[in-house]
Design goal:
By secondary structure, the chain is of the alpha+beta class. About 25% of the residues lie in helices and about 35% in strands.
């Protein structure tokens, strides 16, 4: 299969303007192969969903999400229930979903050819309330770090999330969580709860090394009531996914979880702030066709 037409939905703010620059070169490379390319610019996540849905209404259209993980989720929301395919063009700070997509991107001509020719397959998404999430949802220390990374003047690079986590950790106190996991209630005193559809989050940290995009399940990862001295090695071990074997860490496959906390707690999904909980996150299997997954 050779894809002939593309609509790119670009977040012009992603990567401090890198998304727009990335798409200029990629659009040129795609057109040089004979493809037709329309480039659109979103005014926000809701607008990105609208642009993607409009493109999906066109037979044979492939929609490119250009930016960070947030716009990938927003574009995915516009494609659910359609036959349109999603292509990921990473140009944000974290770009965690892109790590799960097996497409060469170092050379723009090879990237363009791969977008035209690589197979796609159905993948799952997570529904965080009504929000479509293709990567992960987190509530706790990591969400607070994401919040800080968005507010502080940090490098527009993946390491920013890890720098923010160290900064937040100095003042952090554990949370009491009330979880309902596949209908069973349980309580956790801990530092974070993550519901993952994708292995990576926070700029190349393997939070859920067992997560698979097309298994019809989500991975629930919890980090218990560890003190600061024990949390720092956990953050280091996340780089290779080794934290899940450490004391105080659990990881298991689930289909649905409701998360409530004993104090106001930031909730984030695909790098974007969510309303405060309680929040129900459930899997929607085979909801989306992803190129290169």
């Amino acid at each position: 299969m050779i894809r002939e037409t593309f609509t790119a939905v670009v977040n012009p703010a992603a990567g401090s303007g890198a998304a727009a620059a990335t798409m200029i070169g990629l659009a040129r490379a795609l057109r040089e192969t004979g493809a037709r390319v329309q480039v659109t610019y979103s005014r926000g996540l809701a607008h990105a969903t609208e642009l993607a849905a409009a493109a999906a209404a066109t037979d044979g259209e492939t929609v490119l999400a250009v930016g960070g993980d947030g716009i990938v989720g927003a574009v995915a929301a516009g494609l659910l229930g359609t036959q349109a395919e999603l292509g990921v063009v990473p140009a944000g700070r974290g770009n965690d979903l892109a790590r799960a997509v097996r497409i060469p991107r170092d050379d723009v001509a090879e990237f363009a050819a791969a977008l035209r020719e690589s197979p796609s397959r159905p993948v799952d998404v997570a529904m965080a309330g009504e929000r479509v999430v293709i990567g992960s949802v987190c509530a706790g220390l990591d969400a607070a770090a994401n919040d800080a990374a968005n507010r502080w003047r940090l490098p527009r690079k993946p390491i920013a999330y890890q720098i923010a986590a160290v900064g937040v950790l100095a003042r952090w106190k554990p949370i009491t969580y009330e979880l309902t996991v596949d209908g069973v209630s349980e309580q956790l005193r801990g530092n974070t709860v993550v519901v993952a559809n994708c292995k990576w989050y926070g700029g190349a940290l393997q939070i859920a090394p067992s997560a698979v995009l097309d298994d019809g399940l989500l991975d629930l990862v919890t980090i218990g009531d560890l003190n600061r001295r024990r949390l720092v090695p956990v953050l280091t071990a996340m780089r290779r996914g080794a934290h899940v074997t450490m004391p105080g860490i659990t990881s298991r496959p689930i289909r649905e979880v409701t998360i409530a906390t004993d104090r106001p707690t930031p909730f984030y999904a695909d790098g974007e702030r969510l309303p405060s909980g309680p929040l129900t996150v459930r899997v929607r299997p085979s909801a989306l066709r992803l190129i290169g997954a």
